[in-house]
Design goal:
10 helices, two-stranded antiparallel ribbon, alpha/beta, Rossmann fold
Length: 247
């Protein structure tokens, strides 16, 4: 991975790419992939959220915080960027769901008390120095609390483009770490083992690993406007892991 990448530089890039139009379009339940592949799994893994204290770690524009609050959770959302933090607070002022938003770098998480669950959705792969962020998530849990994280699947990171261009997924590098330039901002590839081994080093016990596939009917409906979407039926573009904090 390029040595000139810092967490601060990544935060600046995400802040600059956050447009009002995109945030409004995704304000209810995120984008297509989150609606159909990520959100249903997160909610299932988290279980009954009524009156549970939940940290949305790296909450972005706050869509997931709002969704968790709709399911009865008492939510704290943490986000470092100015643009997305401001948008999340604006929506809370409109809706009054009781979500508390804290602007902070997840790798330097302030003491917010302990949580029944911490969810870190589509965040870790966007952080150059990510291990302190995972450590902060696990440490924020009460003993036996639930940590759920979602990342772009390290083995199938550019699935849509590859499937569209080749009718299959192609990858040339996997074991090394490197930057993946994105349309909005960069992600950072690291092997699956890096995430799971770090989780184990923190004493967290994995409960379930999910590699969701897209419903073929949903893919068929989206195919006319999104060539290559059927790749999501056959290969997982996302990896979602739940783990129990040390007791």
């Amino acid at each position: 991975m390029a040595t000139d990448w810092t967490n601060e530089a990544a935060i600046r890039q995400w802040n600059g790419s956050a447009t009002r139009e995109t945030m409004e379009a995704n304000a209810m339940d995120g984008d297509f992939a989150k609606r159909h592949l990520v959100n249903p799994v997160l909610l299932r893994l988290l279980g009954d959220l009524r009156d549970r204290r939940v940290l949305d770690a790296g909450c972005g524009d706050g869509y997931l915080s709002r969704l968790l609050a709709e399911h009865g959770a008492r939510v704290v959302g943490v986000e470092p960027t100015d643009a997305m933090s401001a948008f999340a607070r604006e929506k809370e002022a409109e809706r009054g769901q009781g979500v508390t938003y804290v602007q902070a770098d997840l790798t330097r998480l302030p003491d917010l008390g302990r949580f029944d669950a911490v969810v870190c959705s589509m965040v870790l792969m966007a952080i150059p120095d990510w291990r302190p962020a995972m450590r902060a998530c696990v440490r924020a849990l009460r003993p036996g609390g639930l940590f759920v994280f979602a990342v772009v699947h390290p083995a199938f990171e550019q699935l849509l483009d590859s499937w569209r261009d080749h009718g299959e997924y192609r990858v040339r590098r996997y074991l090394e770490e490197y930057e993946i330039a994105g349309r909005a901002a960069s992600d950072f590839h690291r092997p699956l083992s890096a995430y799971l081994n770090e989780l184990a080093s923190l004493g967290a016990r994995p409960r379930e690993v999910v590699e969701p596939g897209l419903d073929p009917a949903v893919a068929a409906g989206a195919a006319p406007t999104t060539p290559g979407i059927d790749g999501y039926v056959h290969l997982p573009n996302f990896l979602i892991v739940s783990a129990e904090a040390p007791r």
